[in-house]
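## retry 2 of 3
previous attempt timed out at serialization; input unchanged, resubmitting
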Amino acid sequence: MFTTNYETYLATYAASNSTSRGRFYHETVDPARSPFARDRDRIVHATAFRRLEYKTQVFVNHEGDLFRTRLTHSMEVAQLARALARQLRLNEDLIEAIALAHDLGHTPFGHAGQDALNECMQPYGGFEHNLQSLRIVDVLEERYGGFDGLNLTFETREGILKHCARRNAEQLGDVGERFLNGTQPSLEAQITNIADAIAYSNHDIDDGLRSGILSLEGMRESSLFAQYHDEVRHAFPQIRGHREVLETVRRIINAMVVDLTQTTANSIAAHGIQTIEDVRAAPQLASFSEEMRTHMSTLKQYLMIHMYRHHQVMRSSVKAQRVIRELFAAFIDEPRLLAQDYQVPNDKITQARRIADYIAGMTDRYALREHVRLFSSTDDK
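## retry succeeded, writing output
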């Protein structure tokens, strides 16, 4: 079993390398890597991970080279999550693995693509990107001779599955149990979930201001942004433009990280948490203070109104959803348009799921090219 002095550094309530619930398929222990480090490495080498480079965060991939993609977002979540893990003495390898894998199941075109694919899949069980992420690491990746998927540890898999409807949880075995019995995942999973929210909220501010959709004066309607923007202008009166934005966002992220770390540590102490079993039996422990939750809510509301529902973003979203709907309709009407591996004769439900796998695996630009190939009147190759 992999052991290092690192184990002695971990808090007693952290997920331990030596007590992992293990993998579905037994494998010989790697003497050079912890089980969770091995998970992280498998995720980084996965085909689905590479595709994140060309999947939208908010802006469609071809709209600019400087905007976030699912890949850069996942890397930023991993950085934040590892910093939080170190402060709370949690397992950094596990938290990084969860962070890098959490968006593997996202469709092209961000949430607009997911909404459209879910709508298409309603007669066949629906579509949810968390479940798709788990499906990718459990079934769809094809890298190993002895099993489908990546054969990740239980702890990484439960962290990937942030939320799940009861009807789906009943079919997922061990990772679905907590949604049925009301228990919590590891603190590593809880922290990664909030690190995701910190990353996308702040980096959407950056991308929104860079694109011109948001304005500095408008962002000052958020008291949190205004507080740190004033601090930046006082400290650096000579700087303006994007550098000013980055300094402000950096301070907001730091404030959120400090607040989350302290509030979570206080909650751990208040509940007398000693073991990971205590973590699972307690209410959710990772959280912001009430004040920071209010700030986060106000910020999200502002971004929803002024960015996510901005007419430029909405136009891209509507176009993207039309692409997804038309691709799905074409493939479900005539599965022979698909490669042989995706054809499932005489089983409409399974066929629909394989179509969802195919579409969800597309990058933004591949989906657009596939749409042109199917619907253009010219002889596109």
